[in-house]
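Database export, one record per block. Field names are fixed; values are copied verbatim from the stored entry.
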Amino acid sequence: MKIRDTKKSYFILFLTGIMIGVLCRLTDFLPYEESLWSFPSIATLFGFWIASVGIITCLSSSNIGAFMNSFLYMFGMTISFYGLKYILGFYIPRFSNDGQFQTDLFIVYSILSAACGIGSFILYFWNRQNAFQSFLYALPASGMLAEAAACLFVLCNRHMLLAQAVFDLAFGFLFGIGLYKKARHKILYIGTVILVGVSVFLLIYQPFLLTV
């Protein structure tokens, strides 16, 4: 079922993002440090965003629709994620930020929301029947599997991020197998998954996540 390009659909995606942001913030009530599952960090890793953009792009009806759907979903999630922390900070010490709204992080993730929209706009071109289609199909699986590898490394060494590892592996294989079946150029698809996956792991996750 496709998401129709209507104001009603955009509004629903925005509200959905708000609800997901609230749920993600509420996971902060769960333990993080030295926690095997590490539920609180799911929304802060790229895998959650990659999976969301990939699913929304698959369900969108046009390039513009893909942009609007992804941006509004992510922006709604950003608003509720940081807005709820600000509100909870007045009542619960662990959320306190000296009465200050985290404007810097809110701006950063708002910009990333727009970037997700642009990414979704570009990914939608995978509906065209050309070689570039297979390259685009490989990108979501590449990102998910790169993060899965990093999370597995942390899991083995620190006994953390099990939830992220399971999430990334599940969606990595879901995207990997599902989009492989749609790709016209299978070799290009597989090569892109390997090359981009290894590059993302070395450039993004190895310097940052692996220092956890």
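Remark 1: The two ends are 40 Å apart (CA to CA).
Remark 2: The longest helix spans residues 131-158.
End of record.
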